[in-house]
Fold this protein.
Amino acid sequence: MSECIVITSGKGGVGKTTTTANLGVALAQQGHTVAVVDADIGLRNLDVILGLENRIVYDLVHVIEGECRLKQGLIKDKRLDGLSLLPAAQTRDKNAVTPDQMRKLVAELKEHFDYVLVDCPAGIEQGFKNAVAGADKAIIVTTPEVSAIRDADRIIGMVEAAELPEPQLIINRFRAKMVQSGDMMNKEDILEILAIPLLGVVPDHEDIIVSANRGVPVAFDDESLVGEAYRRIGRRLGGEPDVPLLDLTVDDGLWTTIKRWMGLAPAREVAR
Amino acid sequence: MSNPAPARVGGGAPVVVRTLSAQSGADGVIVSVRVDVAFDDVRAELHRVLGQTPERWRNRMARLDLGDRDVELFDVRRLVHLLKGDYGLSVTAVYTTERAVHRYVSRELKLQVFTRDPADDCVQALVGAVGEAGATAVTEVGPHAIDSDGVTEIVSGPAVTVEDTTSFETDDDVVEDDGAIADLSYDDESGAAKAAPEPEPDVVLPVEPMPIRIAGGQRVQSIPRSLRGGQSVRFPGDVVVYGDVNPGAVVEAGGNILVFGALRGLAHAGSHGDEAAVIMAFDLRPTQLRIGGRIAFQGLEDDIPRGPGFRPEIAFVTDERIRIEPWRGRLPTEQVATGDAPPSTKTPGDAAEAAPVTEQ
């Protein structure tokens, strides 16, 4: 039984594409077959994050308009069996596709893959409507910033209006240190407003930037804490809802060291 | 005859300004507002129209015809102030179909209010009324008149069905100012097609301030879920939300607002001008509160972290300000002092009816 999950946020720049790429990798690592679909037509990024940009021949619009077969449009990731990308068109815009066409496309993808992850464009317009069209459920990505949370709230309302089940939340760019000092919203604050189940918390780390530039999603990196966060989210998503919590304070080495050195009780900001 | 104003026949003017003769003893000017035009555009258009002959309006009386539109009290106030402040037009009366606006307009703006039957054009109503006193004359100029001369005080458009205003005589004063208007009056256009209407004085009977309008016999709208950003509720009566009202969400009620949850968004109680309305929430931390015509913002320093002992709070208008108090299991002091039954046994709507005492 396959599933289509749309990754959305409302606000731009919170990490939808990074999350989509890494969840795709994490799910594929577990042995699932995964198609990641870039619905951000005209502003494609997912291919770059995945390092598959140079292999694009056909794209989503070609497939939808029947210029190629679905199989031709999909790019298989050679590093990982089971992971495929359907890139967005760069020369077109959101209006090149209709929700009905997306629905049909997703239905076809679901015949071949266990998971179809749709990377939703920012905004609430046509691109959003296309991206949620075929989805079975939604994941909301937000950062611990008021503006991102406002937009996430609005998007949750729209996801509900689209009659999808209650979405799950990923808090991205979480900085335990700043939360600790009261400079950043903690996850309880966020959950109080958004009031949806938390799927995971991803710490803010330079790894993300490096990996994006190299085109190697951080979930490939066994050493990385961020990668571990994504892998755990992937496991939770892939049928292990009880995957243990990721303790962000432990891995934040310097900070923890200083805390211990100062003799302060390590207030543990635990991320599920 | 000065330079012609640009022709705007096709566009449809948002406002129509008509004059009555000074001899009639009636108010001098009627300003009609098109129903489907945003108030910002209406204001811009008013400036454009009235600004052509600003000296003409000084110290004249005006009536504001709001037509069939859903009136926002802020907009009424702003229009009245615009007419008075910029053109010296004193608005004495308002025509509206919105009965709920009466209380506000009559009390706050001290204006006479006429119920306006949506089917009728206000000019017809007015002429019917003053027609009894005789000596009525209305100048009416259709859309085609606009390009005739910048002097005309009337700018019409498809917004108002001018066919209703038949067989008006041309204002003598106006003719002296500008003879062209006489040629363009609706005497020529439609007078033959439609006989002079009988005066219909019933239409303009003053109406007492009405209680909150009740939609479909329903007094309270209950929302069984949280309102997220971008979602809004608008209801002429009371609104009860079972859930949170998040930032970016809007609850607008003609009556009171009760939130069984956290109110973090915008709540507007008494949106038709009822400043006796109250807003209550288990956790009251709104971005903005509005009661009647008053607005309260959340200051930055007001964002006090909520402790474990937070309690329901109630916002109400007292001393011309919005005040927030902890909910003490009863209405604010002034209202209880009127001897009303304990609010715990009452519906929120009753509270609104009991409350006007505070306004006196």
User: Anything to note?
Assistant: The domain at 3-246 of chain A is CATH 3.40.50.300 (Rossmann fold).
